[in-house]
């Protein structure tokens, strides 16, 4: 199927959709070792007897680990087949992330000022395996802060106070332990002067390099856009 190249700049809605697309692509591109790591993730991160409790332990959490890179000797056909096999196995289906009562406050530099509340502690939810979770809200409402907190990318300190609970498959996560995750920052991922297809082409080429030929990379990009209904924004 031939896709017409559009030179129109991406709209905010397209950027949001593309964000979710790249998150899914990053998750699906993780290695076959994620299936094994999923079963041991909860036991590695849960609290050990006698360990001191930390301010953050989460209600639902998940992640995936990187796979070992395929050898350069693999043919394009072998790489495509292996990638499809990972998708068929559904290696992320064993992980459920939960979180509750997530609260974050920022201590002001001036002692007379009250602490600034970033997350008010009323946030709870679950990220179920095999499903997409979208966190929506106005600018500055704490969406990115919440995602960073759930992934363990924010550490409790004298100025930043973080409280709440995180869980992996129902087991509490110890303190502010960082979870294995594929985290993509929007600001360093998108280029406003590039279309959806151009952005995906660029990312696929950087990640796979010479392991896939031009036609094989086009098939990967076109397949993702077709699955998510982005062919009209290409």
TrEMBL record:
UniProt source species: Odontella aurita
Annotated membrane topology: Multi-pass membrane protein
Pfam families: ABC_tran
Protein name: ABC transporter domain-containing protein
Ranges where the ABC transporter domain occurs: 125-231
Subcellular location per the Swiss-Prot or TrEMBL entry: Membrane
Family annotation (Gene3D superfamilies): P-loop containing nucleotide triphosphate hydrolases
InterPro entries tied to this protein: ABC_transporter-like_ATP-bd, ABCG_transporters, P-loop_NTPase
Comp. bias (Acidic residues): 71-80
Membrane-spanning intervals of the chain: none
Entry keyword set: Membrane, Signal, Transmembrane, Transmembrane helix, Transport
Region (Disordered): 40-80
Main location: membrane
Gene Ontology terms: cellular component: membrane
Biased composition (Low complexity): 50-70
SUPFAM superfamilies linked: P-loop containing nucleoside triphosphate hydrolases
One Gene Ontology MF term: ATP hydrolysis activity
Signal peptide (from-to): 1-34
